[in-house]
Write a structure and sequence with these properties.
With 309 residues, this protein is an alpha/beta fold. Helices cover 43% and strands 11% of the residues. Its EC number is 2.5.1.-.
């Protein structure tokens, strides 16, 4: 690790919250490439991070040849643009092995990173993951505290190193300040990255998403910005949390652990998605399972309510 960033974080001129400063001192890695930064190391952290985006781990996009796709029974023109994942089974995986729930989540984080690599490799444009639902606050306090501090902050930091674009959707209002800061840094730092777009749904629920969109539209009607007759599907799409995504609606949803439900995830966006339920706990998911899901998706006839001739 270059010594300049730690030097800044330890300096008296930094205005960062102590918790975030300590976290970054422990977690930040990367080579500083900017000559201007070398000349002037004492600068705002947001500028510092923007000046040395981590390219050393950048995920190659669409590296599989057409011949390899065909050998796997896949066609590049039928590849889903947006794959959504409900990563279920981390806690059960840990319990079966006599481990704490935290160990299960850490194992799941590794597999989520693997999924980013699989999506980049096979040419998927967007990967969205149901990281923490609006209902997950009812879990044991110790587990929620772990997730809301070291786990999600660590996940965001680690995934920034992949060189992909990152976005966090969901209600951020009641997240810890240090996590909000990590989210802001990640989204600002990676906003111009190309290739895979990774989206984490954090404190998210499909009902919440539709409700907040409805409130925004109702306010516009009340204020005379739009007329009641103008409300349609497209207008609702423009107010959902996924409105900034190039491909907001998942083509394929994968859920692990054998459960056959969508658990309040992207209720509006999943209207015409294809579902694939995998009878494995999430930490057990591997590339063969992912390719099998892609193959299953490509065999299906998608008519969107019309007739498929």
């Amino acid at each position: 690790m270059c010594s300049l960033l730690p030097k800044y974080l330890r300096s008296k001129t930094t205005t960062l919250p102590p918790q975030l400063r300590r976290y970054l001192l422990l977690r930040v890695t990367g080579d500083i490439e900017s000559p201007s930064l070398l000349k002037n190391p004492i600068m705002p952290l947001s500028n510092t991070i923007l000046m040395f985006r981590r390219q050393f781990c950048k995920l190659p996009f669409g590296v599989v040849s057409k011949e390899e796709l065909l050998r796997e029974g896949l066609q590049p023109e039928l590849m889903p643009k947006h794959v959504a994942i409900i990563p279920d089974g981390n806690r059960r995986w840990a319990k079966e092995r006599g481990l704490s729930p935290e160990k299960g989540h850490e194992a799941g984080k590794k597999v989520l990173g693997d999924l980013c690599r699989y999506c980049s490799k096979w040419g998927v444009k967007v990967l969205s993951a149901y990281a923490f639902s609006t209902e997950n606050w009812s879990r044991p306090k110790a587990e929620v505290t772990f997730l809301m501090t070291s786990y999600f902050e660590g996940l965001i930091h680690d995934f920034m190193r992949y060189g992909m674009k990152m976005s966090i959707i969901g209600d951020k209002s009641n997240l810890p300040n240090s996590l909000k800061e990590a989210i802001n840094i990640a989204e600002e730092t990676t906003k111009d990255n190309t290739g895979l777009h990774f989206v984490a749904a954090l404190n998210y629920g499909g009902r919440y998403d539709i409700t907040q969109a409805t409130k925004k539209i109702a306010t516009k009607v009340k204020d005379g910005v739009i007329q009641l007759e103008e409300i349609n599907d497209k207008l609702i799409d423009q107010e959902l949390e996924t409105k900034y995504l190039e491909y907001p609606n998942p083509d394929l949803l994968i859920r692990t652990s054998g459960e056959l439900r969508i658990s309040n995830y992207m209720l509006w966006q999943l209207a015409y998605s294809e579902f694939c339920f995998v009878d494995k706990l999430f930490p057990e998911l591997d590339e063969a399972d992912f390719v099998a899901a892609l193959r299953s998706f490509q065999r299906r006839q998608r008519s969107y309510g019309g007739n498929k001739i």
